[in-house]
Design goal:
Layout (H helix, E strand, L loop, with lengths): L6 E5 L3 H12 L3 E5 L29 H16 L3 E4 L2 E9 L2 E8 L6 E6 L1 E4 L3 E3 L12 E3 H11 L6 E7 L3 H10 L3 E7 L3 H5 L2 H4 L3 H16 L4 E3 L1 E7 L6 E6 L12 E4 L2 E6 L1 E3 L2 H6 L3 E2 L2 E2 L12 E3 L8 H20 L10 H21 L15 E3 L4 E2 H9 L6 H8 L12 H8 L16 H5 L34
Parallel strand pairs: 1-2, 1-7, 2-3, 7-20, 9-16, 10-11, 10-16, 11-12
Antiparallel strand pairs: 4-5, 5-6, 8-17, 13-14, 14-15, 18-19, 21-22
Helix pairs in contact: 1-2, 1-9, 3-4, 4-7, 9-10, 11-12
């Protein structure tokens, strides 16, 4: 007799998605783990391509033992057919329908075909993406995001350059600088716009997560070992070069957040890895109509959204690092499994993870407040000629004109008047910068499609959703040549 178990679609195979998948599978549901990457792990546990033959991939990671345990548990569930992993599947829409959901995903690197996957519940673990504020010269070749530099190193074993400056604000800068230095790059400086006083103000909150303090101290020790200068309360005001990056200009910030006169200095480099924090990735949640709190998806104690049958975990609910993502993923997976199988969720089943979640959320709220001392007057340093939307080549001057002359009062109107945010990235790269220049708040896009989709896919006849957990259909035996309906038979039409 065939066993019928509810299907939970987990979208995203980073720390939150992996923790959710293994927890839900252990509690009796079939899990379809859908991810755009070729290998599970997400950005945090990004693995080198298999063809590179990396001998010591653990050298690029911390919390390697946690990853190995998580990977081994996932492999056990895969072998037992409790989890189906769909790699290189790019989810572009999730539809609500009677009795469940249909997840639409483009397949492979070409992304020219789409598959529809049916599930009874959906768990969003789509992570976050980088926030980069524009400045003169940021479009020069050699300027990359901090996470982009880390991805090149982890996934491709590639250094983005030989001499690097890591700049911006946020905790991501520390592992990026140490990773580049450990891989052989000369890190000329780590330029952080926050300063020691910003962290002292929140000293009481650091006690709640002592492991994070130890982790931070470890990075600081490694930076000292590699002789990387740490320049706090300073900012990159311009990237310079002819054809590609050759140097950056760095200046100290005054009490108002402006570059202080007489403090500018030039640092030679061929790479600038820059980032100003992370933002939750909420496109699919917005398309489903999930309520947001600012830029993050709202969830309850079970990690449920306000849309029935939809859970969310990890950085889509707020930026908080891998440990918090693992805790939230575990809670979401167990709670979703209970709800989908008709059981009453028992919070005692995930009590340790819930305590870790509370502690870490408090820690990261304080950490975000400390890093909020990013340059308050950054827009004053952006010249009218600076391109702020790379896809559509929209300048800061065009955005300012849309607001000051044409009367745009919100981000959508600025987009309509300038085309800023209408390109391939759909505003993910430029939107924070455009909003800052326009003086507008970031607002949910509520797009039906979470990523660009070929017109051929949209125009094709809708396909019947498949159950990827079902065994493959055996091939139809070939028709004998002399059969009445065979193509070459005498009576064939």
């Amino acid at each position: 007799m065939t066993e019928h178990r509810p299907v939970l679609a987990v979208i995203g195979a980073g720390p939150a998605g992996l923790a959710a998948a293994v927890a839900a599978a252990a509690d009796g549901v079939r899990v379809v783990l859908i991810d755009s990457a070729a290998e599970a792990g997400g950005q945090f546990y990004r693995q080198p391509a298999r063809g590179l033959g990396a001998r010591r991939p653990q050298a690029l990671h911390h919390q390697w033992r946690t990853w190995r345990r998580l990977r081994a548990t996932l492999d056990t569930h895969l072998a037992a057919d409790r989890v189906t992993h769909l790699s290189e599947h790019h989810v572009w829409c999730v539809e609500r329908e009677s009795g469940g959901f249909t997840v639409h995903a483009l397949i492979g690197s070409e992304q020219e075909e789409s598959v529809a996957i049916r599930a009874h519940g959906v768990l969003l673990a789509t992570g976050g993406y980088e926030k980069v504020l524009p400045f003169p010269g940021w479009t020069l070749p050699g300027v990359v995001t901090a996470g982009g530099a880390q991805a090149l190193l982890k996934g491709g074993l590639v250094l983005p350059g030989r001499t690097a400056v890591v700049a911006g604000t946020g905790p991501l800068l520390l592992p990026v600088a140490t990773g580049l230095a450990a891989a052989g790059a000369r890190v000329a400086a780590l330029v952080e716009s926050a300063g020691p006083r910003d962290f002292v103000r929140h000293a009481r909150s650091w006690v709640a997560a002592s492991a994070k303090l130890v982790e931070g101290a470890g990075y600081a020790a490694r930076l000292t070992l590699y002789r990387v200068p740490l320049m706090s309360r300073q900012v990159v005001v311009e990237a310079l070069g002819t054809g590609r990056l050759e140097s950056v200009t760095v200046a100290a910030l005054d009490s108002a957040g402006r570059p202080a006169p007489g403090t500018a200095r030039r640092i030679a480099c061929d790479t600038l890895a820059v980032g100003h924090g992370l933002l939750p990735h909420t496109d699919l949640a917005e398309g489903l109509g999930c309520r947001l709190d600012g830029t993050a998806v709202c969830v309850d104690d079970e990690q449920r959204t306000d849309v029935p049958g939809v859970w969310a975990a990890g950085e889509t609910t707020g930026i908080g690092g891998s440990t918090l993502s693992l805790a939230e993923g575990h809670i979401a997976g167990r709670a979703a499994a209970a709800r989908l199988t008709g059981a009453v969720p028992d919070p005692r089943a995930w009590a340790p993870a819930a305590r870790a979640r509370t502690r870490l959320r408090s820690f990261f709220t304080a950490l975000d407040a400390a890093y909020a001392a990013r340059p308050a007057r950054w827009t004053e340093q952006v010249t009218d000629e600076t391109v702020v939307c790379r896809c559509e080549e929209v300048t800061a001057g065009a955005v300012r004109e849309a607001v000051g002359t044409l009367g745009a009062g919100d981000l959508r109107t600025v987009k309509l008047l300038t085309r800023a945010g209408m390109g391939w990235c759909q505003g993910r790269v430029c939107e924070p910068g455009v909003a800052g220049l326009a003086g507008c708040a970031l607002a949910p896009a509520r797009r039906l499609l979470a990523r660009p989709v070929p017109l051929g896919v949209l125009a094709a006849d809708p396909t019947e959703p498949v159950d990827p957990t079902a065994p493959p259909t055996p091939p139809t035996p070939p028709t004998p040549p002399n059969a009445p309906n065979a193509p070459n038979a005498p009576n064939a039409q």
